[in-house]
Amino acid sequence: MEPWIQMVVTIVCSVIASSGFWAFVNKRSDSRDVKTEMLVGLAHDRIVYLGMMYIDRGHITQDEYENLYQYLYKPYEKMGGNGSAKRIMNEVNKLPLHKSEYNEVGEDKG
Length: 110
Prior knowledge:
Layout: H1 3-17, H2 19-57, E1 60-61, H3 62-78, H4 84-92, E2 97-98
Parallel strand pairs: 1-2
């Protein structure tokens, strides 16, 4: 084996075997886990808050539903969230769906 290849293999093996390397890897994965937990928690809070608001009101608009389901609930579910937010979404799914009310740009309320 070429001496420079042997030296590179030795260096790579030393780095992988060092405790500092594995501490760095573990620290990064712990940080991501905490961030994931925080995101799931924030999404849960927002889903429950908005869902309860719509349930209390008795209906939901198309835009509100898309916002809640597509941009909050689906990612929340993919990240491992469940429980009370799922129950809230089940109740929201039973609500009457109203057409979103907004004016086109430049349209007068007249």
